[in-house]
Amino acid sequence: MARRCSITGKKPLSGNNVSHANNKTKKWQRPNLHVKRLYIPELDRTVRLRVSTRALRSISKLGLLAYLKKQGLQLKDVA
Predict the structure, then answer these.
(1) For the whole model, what pTM was predicted?
(2) Cβ of 5: how many Cβ atoms within 10 Å?
(3) Residue 3, CA atoms < 13 Å, CB-side half-sphere
(4) CATH for 61
(5) Whole-angstrom Cα distance, residue 60 to residue 57?
(6) Residue 26 resides in a domain
(7) Which domain holds residue 25?
(8) For 29-78, what is each residue's pLDDT tens digit?
C-alpha cells in the first residue's frame, strides 16, 4: 500500500541529510498517516480511510462529507 493520504494526497518527500562536513545522504520525510474508521451520520455507516493527521483535524471540525466536498471529492473517490 502506498504511503499516501487518501484525501489530501500527501506523500513522502525526499531530500538530503547534510552533515557538518557537507556529506549528503538520502532522507525521507514521511507523512503522519493513520488508518481510521470514520462514522458518517448522514449515511449511518462507517468507512476505513488512510488519512493524515492534518486531514483528521479538518474532518473532526467540519465532518467527513463537508470536508470531501470542500476538497472537490466524493466518498466513492476515497473509500
Answers:
(1) 0.82
(2) 22
(3) 9
(4) 2.30.170.40
(5) 5
(6) yes
(7) 13-78
(8) 999 999 999 999 999 999 999 999 999 999 999 999 999 999 999 999 88
